[in-house]
Amino acid sequence: MGQASHKLRLDIGELGNGNLLVITGAGISAASGIPTFRGPEKDAVWRESDIRMATYEYFRRDPVGQLSWYLDRFFKARQAKPNSAHKALVDLEDWVERFGGTFQLVTQNIDTLHEMAGTRHLIKVHGSLERVRCSSVDCPNAAPHGSLPLPLEEIEAFRQNPSDSTLPRCPACSSILRAHVLFFDEHYFEHADYQFREVERSGSEAGLIVFVGTSFSVGVTELLVRLGHQRRVPMYSIDPAKGKYGQPGVTQISKTAETVLPRLVDALLHEV
Ligand code: NAD
Ligand code: ZN
Questions:
Q1: Distance between CA atoms of 93 and 19, rounded to whole angstroms?
Q2: 3-state class of 235 per DSSP?
Q3: pLDDT computed for residue 202 by the predictor
Q4: Band of the pLDDT at 11, cuts 50, 70, 90?
Q5: Is the CB of 239 inside a 6 Å radius of any atom of ligand 1?
Q6: Residue 244 to residues 27, 28, 104, 112: CA-CA distances in angstroms?
Q7: What CA–CA distances, in Å, run from 155 to 54, 72, 158, 232?
Q8: Three-state DSSP class for 142?
Q9: Pocket test for ligand 1, best of 34, 37, 124, 261 (most atoms within 8 A of CB)
Q10: What pLDDT is attached to residue 8?
Q11: pLDDT (tens digit, 9 = 90+) per residue, 122-157?
């Protein structure tokens, strides 16, 4: 076992009340070829434009521009495959449950790599690129409960000729369809699929909290760090960014997720 695994020292005793909460961010998918927003590998200008474009305000102003930008990222993410970190989290879930504990994974990622790897207890708190929803307010396909599978043919037609007339539309009310994701200027309670109450509950019941590949920039990490502090729960962050995104009271393991998580789980499985 390497230095990092020693620090995290996961054995069943470390799990406290038996409830393990893991929160992943874009960093866990970096080794699968999906760029992060704020990781060290990107230049500042592009990061700024990413964040401005991922807003509802931009969607209202320029839906053609936003969908074109989104689809660029979308096709990259759709081709990606889970890496060893995603797979290790599935083994970790099995291990925790074998000992009668509970495992909850909350991901900020909209890619589908945790599902593809086989994680069972998964909350996609920022939505999913595999679905869309209606942008109207009174439609069953819209927030707060509705969504639709991706209309792939319409998306392909839009890609060939991006314009107002080719924007994918809701089959029920003909309003423009939008990504089924939480934009930066929207709220976690806008859609039931974000399961924010469930995230709060997991944070209030966890015996150990492990953050993986997140820059702690948004509300969900802020909430979970606060809940962890209040309840004096041990917290770890696996992120190679050498303290840049460190949080007081969260022990940082400055290594990549794809290095640390498989080693940690290997060590656990061999202890049994
Ligand atoms: P972020 O881009 O703000 O931060 C990524 C973090 O991952 C950084 O701290 C970086 O140092 C770290 N990192 C880079 N490579 C890593 C590796 N190999 N192992 C471990 N950590 C590594 O991401 P965030 O905190 O998730 O917040 C960004 C927002 O953007 C989220 O809301 C998320 O929904 C969205 N986003 C999603 C994806 C995706 O679905 N894969 C990709 C980019 C952004
Ligand atoms: Zn509709």
A1: 11
A2: strand
A3: 97
A4: low
A5: yes
A6: 14, 17, 26, 27
A7: 18, 12, 5, 47
A8: strand
A9: 37
A10: 55
A11: 999 999 999 999 999 899 999 999 999 999 999 999
